């Protein structure tokens, strides 16, 4: 009975130790499971946030796509309008070009006519120029004679001017002597 009792007690102790071990394992697993739950909760929140951002990005992209399509359509319409305006302007410029070309032909005919008149006028002017040059040479000869005479007169006038200037200097010297004499006389007490 004692042996059986000891044997049963040994089994109970083994069972308690095993239960304690299992309890510790269960606590460790519970802690790990808690960590896993928290991690899963964080992942779900992050996933929810990513879904929200993805939805917003998708909406923004759709808005951008619509705006880009509208801008493209507007640009296409503007390009068509510009093409129409340029086409119309091209027609106007082509007509103007034809008019200018016709005017150029008329001007070329006028130019040839004027060139002939210019040649005739140049010959006439050349004859007149030769005549005027001869008259000018004659006038130059007369003017040279006049200049020679005037130079001679200028020499005589310079000489006369120098004489007058010399007389003026003499007169100024006499005036200075008179002034000094007058001052000397005024300083004498008997004459005062």
Description:
The chain is mainly α and 192 residues long. Helix content is 97%, strand content 0%. The termini are far apart. 0% of the residues are buried. Keywords: Coiled coil. InterPro entries: GOLIM4 (IPR042336).
Q: How would you sum up this structure in a few lines?
A:
Residues 5-60, 90-117 form a coiled coil. With 192 residues, the protein is mainly alpha-helical.
Number of strands: 0
| Major beta sheet summary | none
Note poorly predicted spans. Answer: none
For the terminal residues, how far apart are their CA atoms?
186 Å
Query: What structural class results from the helix and strand content?
Result: mainly alpha
What is the H-and-E element order?
H
Q: Indicate the overall shape.
A: elongated
Mean pLDDT: 94
Helix percentage range: over 70%
Radius of gyration based on Cα positions: 65 Å
User: Number of DSSP helices?
Assistant: 1
Task: Note the beta-strand portion.
Answer: under 5%
């Amino acid at each position: 009975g004692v042996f059986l009792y000891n044997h049963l007690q040994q089994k109970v102790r083994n069972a308690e130790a095993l239960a304690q071990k299992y309890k510790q394992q269960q606590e460790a697993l519970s802690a790990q499971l808690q960590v896993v739950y928290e991690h899963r909760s964080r992942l779900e929140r992050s996933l929810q946030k990513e879904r929200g951002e993805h939805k917003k990005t998708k909406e923004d992209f759709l808005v951008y796509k619509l705006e880009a399509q509208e801008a493209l359509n507007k640009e296409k319409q503007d390009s068509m309008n510009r093409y129409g305006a340029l086409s119309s302007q091209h027609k106007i410029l082509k007509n103007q070009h034809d008019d200018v070309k016709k005017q150029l032909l008329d001007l070329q005919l006028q130019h040839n006519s004027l060139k002939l008149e210019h040649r005739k006028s140049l010959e006439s002017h050349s004859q007149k120029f030769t005549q005027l040059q001869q008259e000018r040479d004659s006038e130059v000869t007369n003017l040279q004679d006049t200049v020679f005479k005037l130079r001679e007169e200028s020499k005589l006038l310079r000489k006369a001017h120098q004489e007058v200037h010399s007389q003026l200097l003499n007169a100024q010297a006499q005036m200075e002597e008179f002034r000094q004499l007058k001052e000397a006389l005024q300083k004498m007490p008997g004459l005062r």
